[in-house]
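Query structure, 222 tokens:
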């Protein structure tokens, strides 16, 4: 799931990004509100986190415009030393939630998951291929009613494949888009983790779900 974060504190932005990427979110950081407007107009995001500091008229107007343009996107506003009246202004302008700095990253993660759960609904949160089920918010995987324990990297790989059912997915796409490795990185690590995943997802089941597509990469289902 894709999250856009507006935060001009570079250190805090990096900490938030590391935390959320470690939980399988696709996170993009920007420092400028103008850039937020451009990106939201051209890309698809599941949630916005925006540090708007004090509720200046221009910031509130930007929030209103975003809400009008993208009424379906959950928005969390971050602010420092903000009183109740200011929080009301944010909520009236279109924010779905508000958090005061200094932040608890664990609480931010929990609030993000709560908003996504309500906004996306079960169809988008839970991915299913035959008897395999992956919950993107709870980060659980089950097959045939049995829970499968995956590492973070394995979970990201399975999530990436299950978002593209019955489609051949190239190794370099997995390396670059799912794991954010640099272009040209050695992609045999993908083969290694596919083998790990097969042992957990397919072992003991009559019908394998993860297939090799020769000359391309891998496919789930079919």
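Result returned for the query:
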């Amino acid at each position: 799931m894709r999250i856009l974060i507006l935060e001009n504190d570079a250190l805090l932005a990096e900490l938030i990004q590391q935390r959320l990427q470690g939980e399988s979110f696709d996170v993009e950081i920007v420092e400028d509100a103008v850039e937020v407007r451009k990106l939201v107009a051209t890309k698809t995001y599941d949630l916005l986190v925006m540090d708007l500091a004090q509720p200046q008229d221009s910031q509130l107007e930007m929030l209103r415009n975003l809400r009008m343009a993208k009424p379906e996107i959950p928005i969390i506003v971050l602010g420092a030393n903000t009183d109740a009246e200011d929080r009301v202004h944010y909520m009236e302008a279109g924010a779905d939630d508000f958090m005061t700095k200094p932040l608890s990253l664990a609480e931010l993660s929990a609030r993000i998951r709560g908003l996504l759960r309500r906004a996306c609904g079960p169809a988008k949160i839970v991915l299913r291929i035959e008897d395999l089920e992956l919950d993107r918010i709870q980060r659980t995987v089950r097959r045939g009613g049995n829970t499968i324990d995956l590492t973070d990297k394995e979970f990201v790989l399975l999530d990436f494949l299950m978002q593209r059912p019955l489609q051949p997915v190239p190794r370099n796409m997995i390396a670059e888009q799912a794991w954010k490795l640099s272009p040209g990185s050695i992609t045999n690590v993908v083969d290694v983790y596919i083998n790990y995943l097969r042992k957990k997802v397919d072992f003991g089941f009559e019908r394998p779900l993860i297939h090799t597509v020769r000359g391309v990469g891998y496919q789930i289902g079919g």
